[in-house]
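dumping this here before i forget
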Amino acid sequence: MRIGLNLLHAVPEIGGGWNYIANLVALLAEQDHVNEYVAFVTSASAALVPDRPNIRTVQVGIRPGSRPQRIAFEHSLLQAIARRHDLDCMHWFANSQGIVNAAPAVVTIYDLQPFSGYAPFSPLKLRYLQWRLRSTVARAPMLLPMSQATADDLQRVLGAEPERMRVVPPMLEPEFQPAGKADVARIRERYRLPREFWLYVAHLYPHKNHERLLEAYQQLKRVDPQAWPLVLRGDKQPVGPDISELIRRFGLADDVILVPRLDRGDLPALYSAASALVFPSLYEGAGMPVLEALACGCPVAASGIPAVREFAGGAANYFDPQASHGIAAAMAALAGDSSSRDRLRTAGLERARDFRATPVLERLVGAYQRASRAPRRPAPARRRGPADAGISPDQS
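structure:
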């Protein structure tokens, strides 16, 4: 087969999505010696494509990160280029496909955030994203949710048939393992990190729940003034909390440390240096920082939402992310029980192995084969149904 990879939306700022795509593209380039790939990239996303004989790059002249330019290009010139390359299918990596496609679409679905109630978008953008996701789920020959939790939501909320879905979970990179003492010492010295600390790795989106975490941490400090400091690693987003203002409001200026953007290779050392990860997110399609922490031997206390439970299994302690007192209690319990941390550390390393040996290549190629043989699906008539109801927080 000749398979297109639409990487036009990808910029490093998308965080976990960028890493997910990088790992999948590297897997295809390095291990699929049967099929050939054509990657459509911008000057930014060209960095995602390894130099291998089975994959070639077509760079287009749109501005990286420009949504209007990208959308216009995807629905017009990209289709003409795809036709010229005689593609058997096209893999779309951003929750949606073209309105009309020259090649059958395989679509990665990260989550159903536009239907979750936590989407940080304007009403107009929210309606647009809901329309695109609804249309994609109705018409795409193959859907690739990142987790079974997302697959279940696709079926329940948007009526996706199970036979059109293949769960393709994230893969842990080899670098995510317990770091050596020298690397841990280096990261401590560079960012002046204390000997023991809580860590939260998440960009500053509303659904990442930083405000409630800081409220919980304030409660924890009132009970135990010697509680471990809290280290936050995440970038400011266009819509999200003012983290510095929140820290001042809760009186935590002396207890919270903000870590700037790290090189990807420094993250294992940060996880390894931490005493534990706290992950209070309200909604996730997967929850990669939880997996990364487990792989680095970092104990985890996390939201008991479906996707996180699916990935962490019995290797984490769970709490209700809606209740600050519950978050505080979970943090206090884990910090006060070294044997529990040792147990979770061992269980986490074992759990992480499942995400290194997952047969992702077989799932991907199978999805491409099914899509290339699938008949074209007509656009659905607009009707009000379960998709308009949204996902409640406890069904995320």
